[in-house]
Amino acid sequence: MTNKVQVVVIGGGATGTGILRDLALRGIDSLLVEQNDLATGTSGRFHGLLHSGARYVVKDLHSAEECIQENIILKEIAPDCIEDTGGMFIATKNDDLSYVNQWLEGCEKAGINTGEVSAQELLKEEPALTPDIVKAYYVPDAAVDGFTLAAANVLSANKAGAQVKTYTKVVGFKLEQNKVRGVYLQNKRTGKEELVGCDYVINAGGAWAGQIAALAGQNINISPDKGVLVIFNHRITNRVLNHLRPPGDGDIFVPHGSVTVFGTTSRLTSSPDDNEATRGEVLELLAEGSNLVPDLKEMRLIRAFAGVRPIYQPEGGEVGREATRDFTLIDHSRFTGLQGMVSVVGGKLTTFRLMAKVAVDMVAGRLGIDKPCITHLEKIYAPVPRNGAKPGEYLCQCEMVTKKMLDQAVLEKEQFSLSDVRRLTRLGMGPCQGTFCTFRAAGYYHESRGLKVKAANKLLKDHIEERWKGSKAVLWGQQAQEAQLTRGIYLGLLNLERLDSDRHDV
Amino acid sequence: MSKGDERNLDHCLKCSTCHTQCPVVANYLAFPGPKQLGPELERLRLARGGKAPFEIDEALNYCTNCKRCDIACPHGVKPSYYNIKNKAKLKGKSLNKFRDWILAHNVWWGKIGSQIPSLTNFGLKFPLTRLSMGLVGVANRHFPKYEKKKVIISKEKKEKKALYYAGCYASYNEPQIIQAAVNILEACGYQVELAPAACCGTPMVSNGLLEEAGKLAEKNTDIFLKYIQQGFKIITTCSSCGLALKEEYAHMLPGEKSNRLRKNIWDLFEILDEEGILPFSSSQKIAKAYYHVPCHLKAQGIGVPAANLLKAIAIKELIIEDSYCCGISGTYGFKKEKYALSMAIGGPLFQDIKESQVPLVITDCGTCKLQIEHGTGVTVNHPAVILENYLKKTQ
Amino acid sequence: MMYDVVVIGAGLAGFSAALAASESGKKVIVVAQGMGNLYSASGYIDFLGYYPTTSSKPVLNPGKALEQLIVEKTDHPYARIGKENISRSFAAFIKASREMGLPYTGSLETNLLMPTAVGALVPTTLYPQSAEKDVVFSREIVVVGIKELVDFYPAYAAENLERQLGRKIRSVWVDLGLNVGRELNSYDLALTLEKPDIRNRLILKLKEADVQNKLVLIPAVLGVNRWQEVISEIEEKLQCQVLEIPTLPPSVMGYRLAQSFKLYLKKKGVEFIIGFPVSYVKCTDRRCEEVGIIANERVKKIKGYNYCLATGGILGEGLKVLPDEIKEQVFNLPIKKSKEQLLNDFFNSEGQPLSHAGVMVNDNLQPVNPQTQAVILTNVFVAGATLASYDPFVEKSGNGVALASGYKAGVLAAKGGFSDE
What we know:
The structure holds three protein chains of three kinds.
Chain A: E1 7-10, H1 14-25, E2 30-33, E3 49-50, H2 61-77, E4 82-83, E5 87-92, H3 97-110, E6 115-116, H4 119-125, E7 133-139, E8 142-144, H5 146-159, E9 163-165, E10 168-176, E11 179-187, E12 193-197, E13 200-203, H6 209-215, E14 222-232, E15 240-243, E16 252-256, E17 259-263, E18 267-268, H7 279-289, E19 301-312, E20 327-331, H8 332-335, E21 341-346, H9 352-367, E22 394-396, E23 401-402, H10 403-409, H11 418-425, H12 437-448, H13 453-471, H14 477-493
Helix pairs in contact in A: 1-5, 1-9, 2-3, 12-13
Chain B: H1 17-20, H2 23-27, H3 34-46, H4 68-72, H5 79-87, H6 94-104, H7 106-115, H8 117-125, H9 127-135, E1 160-165, H10 167-173, H11 175-187, E2 190-194, H12 202-206, H13 210-229, E3 232-236, H14 239-252, H15 256-263, E4 265-267, H16 268-275, E5 286-292, H17 295-298, H18 305-313, E6 315-321, H19 336-356, E7 360-362, H20 366-376, E8 379-381, H21 383-388
Chain C: E1 2-8, H1 12-23, E2 28-32, H2 62-72, H3 77-81, H4 83-99, E3 104-106, E4 112-115, E5 121-124, E6 126-128, E7 141-146, H5 154-165, E8 170-174, H6 186-192, H7 196-208, E9 215-219, H8 227-238, E10 241-245, H9 252-267, E11 271-274, E12 278-284, E13 287-295, E14 298-309, E15 319-321, E16 326-328, H10 353-356, E17 380-382, H11 392-395, H12 398-415
Parallel strand pairs in C: 1-2, 1-14, 2-11, 7-8, 7-9, 9-10, 14-17
Antiparallel strand pairs in C: 3-6, 4-5, 12-13, 13-14, 15-16
Helix pairs in contact in C: 1-9, 1-12, 4-12, 7-8
């Protein structure tokens, strides 16, 4: 691998990978670095909603317009990553109906198609909904898989010659005469450091963008805004469900594969790494969601998590939900004179492609390259396709994951965790939360990848630990039972907790 | 989904206990089993907007609806609920569909057949009939004889009122059961009337004709509720009819009506047990017999009231067996492609009966009877027919 | 109808209680929501594998360790059961297991180290006779996997075993050539191996793997009902020893125990109503008068003189975890639990506080108020995972506690006529 590229992109979320792809399709030699795996920040920790924009029409019309434009483009270019479920907005008898009119006006202005549907008709199709609906509209929302999206961007970028380093942290910048000349990187697994020279750095670190910029002496004011989400065991509604009221906590349900993601909350937090949901937060969410889905508290929760919205806060701006969901391109040379670095901040996953385009337009211009953006013209594909698997091949039956998919997920990786595999395949994302498939995957990889047995044990244990952490906040009802079954298997039956303890020698 | 169906797929922990109790799995390995076809498949189906079925859906045709999975689940999931619902959405081979339709409407054949029993019974043995049945996919096996008999009922008005629902098998093939049940009920002080209702719908349910079964259920429910309002208890002697009225109707027509109905449906021996009435005298006991608990009786959660009575009154040594399914599952064992499987499922039961060397088998279910007689050659009787002989001769 | 003893729950604790009660000639009924969790269990009966809470050395003499435990951990269910009842239940089970055609063996003085599917060793006290094989001191070992089974990886298990035993262990795959069109679990394979042709195929493949004079470790799939026949056929034809390794659920070894035990109890005259939870109880004056299942909107009442509560813990649904409390499901008995519900690490040998939650009992296994120790119901005896103050999974004591407490509960319920003490 060369240690000089034209552009280094920092951050492996939707924006970063989108930028990498855009650069690569314009023939710009680029490298993306990500401190963890792809889409492990906010792009993997959100509700998985591809906005139609309808949610923003009252507060933030400009964002709404961008959303609907991108919504149409992404459905076209990324069918592997998007399920076009459609969406609905419902107002109940307790909601302020004057808001409905504002909302309808906004949708019209933004060019978002809405179709009114009667409560009676809607309830036939979506029996889980409250009978207290007074107004309901269909909108072109959809579900998007952030993990697959980032991976598909990278696959497309790779084909065009771009490189990616995951589990690689930026530890510093090489600056010469107030210009970025390179990036110091550290491999998190090996601890090895290296310098990669470059002409330009695009900081797409999302909630971590401020920390990254600080390494170059730049100041970006990001107010990390924590949103808690929960995952239900099954699909509650067929369409994305939005509460038709001013945006608030617990008003979005997204059917996602075989599960439902429900959220969110909005609380300022001190750290972008604050991604644990608490039991209290979950219970607050459930109380709110029961207004739309009365049986919600009876339904099985399999997980809770939190993501941090990277809300950019120019001096004196709004914070939290009141803040704009618009994005900003910061050309650091304009503020501090530092050449060779731009930061993309704010925004939302739905508009990642547009953000990438704007950033790359600027950087390409600086580099004297005048190729246009073509990211809206070419399709992107999931590296691990989900279709074509047949019964008889599944290793994880909850989510229909096959051995072949496990192979595809680790194709060129020297090192990987089962969580990396999970993000590409949905391994262990179903109701049993890895109880059955984790052991199988560890056994399978031990042999197929020739892993040392301790590495296979670690693969297994890390994944069970990771699944455990994510379910702790919702460990009651069936999921508490499932956790005891998991303990029964991994502790009781397999005696794994003492396997690698050095004191346990016969 | 997802109106919080009590004990729905959310309760499945994937332990596969149901899988180990499925008689079809045990005899036909390609069958994916209740966990996969039930809660697992339903969850994945919901993930596809409840629309397109999966490849393995065809396997649903092999579910016998014996409900052993429902009982097995340590966590109360009812896989059969999803099986029935999704079976109705299958598009099968048209010939089999035609055959299933014929078998599902046994009530018609019963009505016609029992009018002139001798002719029908002759016809069922006639080679040409058998050949044409074979062509549409009906198994080459003995069919139940059709029989007609006038039932004698007392006209005396009494406070305790029973509406006796005989079901198709007793009505068309073994009317002795009706007379026995009526006699027992009258001995318990009941004024008895025969229910004007038609088939309970079980054959339609298991053949995937859910919509039609639903209409039938609605009609029957209305009839029964009229009687219930007048203070009647609805009494059954067929385990499958009883289970249908108690459970399937509630699934097909969820709501107040079916709840009111199910509260008033009683198995004949269940009501005797509940009221603690014993109109029997324990004279000459039969030395030894074998009692087979029908799967659909097990699924009612009422224990084995008939067996307990038989043991107390009529049989010295009664072997009570509830471990095996006989395999017939109503119309299932009459289908050509399932006949061998049906007999294989019944295999362990037949063997157990033969090894027990009993002269008599007793069971509440008409089709269980057909299958056991077919599989063992041992005489099978309904408990009401046996117990009727032990009624006190005071009246 | 009046029963002498009503057992609620169909796991090992419930079966053990039914066994004890029926041995004293009592009229017994078992009522349970479902088939119980034996079908997911290993089929081994571990009394105490590791001394609680964090010991990493396996207990080699469970009898001695239990004596110490009874003195030191006075809250532990074993302290309530007592050594004498542990020994009695042990003997009663061995006797019953022989009569049910699934003979178990073992000694309270010795734990055998059994290989697990991942290649760890787990100490266990009671095991089927066919499993009486010493892995630690045995000759050459060959670990065999079956291609059709997704739940066992021979090389993985072999390498972990290798590290612990300090010698080379060979592993091999055999392919039975079954093209069934779906994934097969252990139970499915066990069904196929009852068929002579498939069994011969396995024997042929094993022969090719050169297993003569070796100890063959193979996942527990060697027959559902006729495993003794299958194992001895392989051992005789190939002049080897065969040890089955319990697998992930559905566990064939658990299945064999559950099915044989249930059939045995039925033959002893124990009645069963399975498939409906007990969701009605009538208690007056600190006595349970009757319980009932609700089937089809109607209560079916079941009356008994005494009751054994063996509905299990959180997994078995005897205890239900709600966001802010834990509830005992049948009698709504008070629960003893610690404040902290969950530890951060899944793999810790301390045990989870959640697992320690349960019903507190006195020396008669009658439920008591955790604060005042007052008896709540005098004719209810609690057994198994419903009991408080232990974590079966890390101490490897689940089935031992179930068996011993079930037995004691059954004996006490059969005696009847108890007051507070």
